[in-house]
Amino acid sequence: MFARLTFFPRSLVGRVFALYTVTLLVFVGGGLGLFYQFQFSGEIEDAQNRAENLASVIVPTISDSAVIGDDDTIAKTLERAISHSSFASVAFIDLKGRQVRAVRTDPPTLQAPEWLVDEIRNRLFDTNRPINAGGRDYGVLRLTLAPELIAGELWRPARAAMLLGVLSIVLGLFLIRWPLVQWLGQLGKLRTLEENLLSGEGGAPKPLDDNAPIELRQTFAALNQAAENLQAQREQAAVTLGSIDDAVLTLDAHGKVMLANPAASVLFDTPFEGLLEQDIVRLLPEAFEGQGGFNAWRGKRIDLVTSDGQKHVFDTTLSPILGTTGEVICYVLACRDITEQHILDMRLRSELATRQTALIALRGVLEGLTSRDKLSRNSLLHKRLVPGLQMEAPESERSDDDIEAISLMISGLVSSLQERSEQLNAIFALSPDGFVSFDARQCVSYVNPAFMQLTGLSEADVLGHDEGTFSELLSSRCSSETRAHLPSFATMRREARDEDDGTTRRAVIEVERPIHRVLEVGLRVSQSDVISQVFHLRDVTHETEVDRMKSEFLSTAAHELRTPMSSIFGFCELLLVRQHTPERQKDMLNTIHRQTKRMIAILNELLDLARIEARRGADFVLEAADLTGLLRDAVSDFRPPGDRTAPDVSIGVAAAWVRIDRNKMHQALSNVLSNAYKYSPDGGPVELKLLQRGQMGTDAMWGIEIQDHGMGMTPEQVARISERFYRADASGNIPGTGLGMSIVKEIVTLLGGSMDVRSEFGQGTCVTLWLPVAPAPLASSVALLEAVAVPATPA
Fold this sequence. Notes:
This protein is of the alpha+beta class and 795 residues long. 52% of the residues lie in helices and 18% in strands. It has six domains: 12-179, 2-Layer Sandwich (Beta-Lactamase), CATH 3.30.450; 244-337, Beta-Lactamase (2-Layer Sandwich); 344-423, no CATH class; 431-539, PAS domain (Beta-Lactamase); 546-607, Signal transduction histidine kinase, dimerisation/phosphotransfer (DHp) domain (Helix Hairpins), CATH 1.10.287.130; 619-788, 2-Layer Sandwich (Heat Shock Protein 90), CATH 3.30.565.10. It is flat, with a radius of gyration of 50 Å. It starts with 11 loop residues before the first helix and ends in a 7-residue tail after the last helix.
């Protein structure tokens, strides 16, 4: 907010000084105001008290003189009373209106400001005392205070206090200005560091002297080290770019040259300074011809006439450099001279064209030397390698050189086929899916390792068998339900022919051996003479289990929500169609309210659990925390139901440091404590202990043990305690959603810990939450953490 003010200082020294000035003015001004208010009120009250006291003193004398009519005595008494006092006048007024008055004429010793005199005049009032004797009234004694005299007496200490305040402000500003300039004024060296980095000189400023704060000295040391590293990287990059023959240019987002190496200067016959800020589109129009913008490319060849007048061919690559937010901040353009390679390529193309002619001429020789079966396969590969090979050349054009060329080509073709075969074997061997290929006789010719692992069938078990035997072997591994629905090969082939891509719709089977798996099977029909079809298996056990768990979860959640919703709907319908007594209506509305709270609790816990699982701890605010303080806060905030006593806490250590999210861990402890009380309805103590397992290291753990003496659980119930919507109490008498322990387990697991549950039916349950031990922070950090993590006072 202050940074937006135009008059606010721009420098750190100025801002700290301004903040100190404002603070000092506020406190000194506030102190002067309080002093003035106290002195002002006290002086007014003292003046009124003096008037009352003086009236009490002179009233007897005035009464005696008024009885005998001695006006001279009254006048002398009034003059003595007004001298050396703060009264403006003192008067005796008899019943006939006649006055005997004494007026003060000497001026005040110190003239106060008019506003102060007016303020005091508005708050003063005259003091009146009736004069009577023997039950008879003789008149009134009136004392009038002098505001000028009282204001003068107030102005003297107020003026001295203001003078001291101004002096304190001036001295305080002077004393704070000098150390601020000495300590923070050295931040100006950051500008020197920035200029060095921008200019590329890399010379870091001298370290700060000992007068600077240690944080600034550490910051400057880190910046100097970063500047030295950056300069070293720059020098290394400059040496690297200068040693390569490729032209390399760095462009900004608009295509302006920012940096170029010596090879680029030679390519464009322009010194380095002349290339800077040049438009790359103007320098290399051939590279950007037909492009609407700066689109990245690789391997684009362009023809360029260099400064020596020779035509060269360059292979260019344009690579974008992305910023932290994903936008393009600059480009790197690399240009490699491939003129010699291009000439060689053209020569090779010419030679290939010559060989292509030779292949056409000697096709008849190949047909005569190759058997019919091999000829069909080689002819197909020959057509792929030599497009346009459709005519036979005259026999007179055949020669020994052509036969040698054909032999070399066949040798290369065989090598290529071998490499491709090895690649396919590697792919099938590494594939997690199972493949079974059938030959032209529809017998098994190949199985990959994944098939043997999924089905437990070895290669010797299936190789050479026909479809029927293979189906029986696969069926022996399936469950009894799957065997009846295992599709036949005839059915799968018929479906494959009906499909455009020659594949069947996938079917799902379950195998029991070697382990239970759910497999998705399919068949692809081939038109090849070697392979007639390929049987495919894919392990979908995990996906099937996830679908089952999702369906079970949705069914359970719908059931849990339907129960309170049915109750709400039923009572609402009763309230709409019938008239009930006020007591009955109130009872129905209370039931609706309870069921609504139950639905809200289920939905909130579902949302908490979904949020925790989806973010996987990404929203956790992890910090070093002392478990002893966290346990005390959790017990203090927890309210036991009814008249039950609070948990018995046994800690036994001074500190137990862990790295956790305080709020999430507090939620987990509250859930476990709530269950401990709910599932011990007959009473009994709930005990909370802090345990330690292992020494300081990777296996050291702190444990929070919550023990109740309630109904307990069976081993089967303990195994399902963290399942969603699972509740050990099937009667429904104990309120709850069945999601609390699921949330506890997710929180503890994401914090790197674990949850142990021990229970004995009818005896009670013990839940232990284990968390990894974290190193204790430094003493200063501990003080800071304790100051920040002060627990709020319970409501």
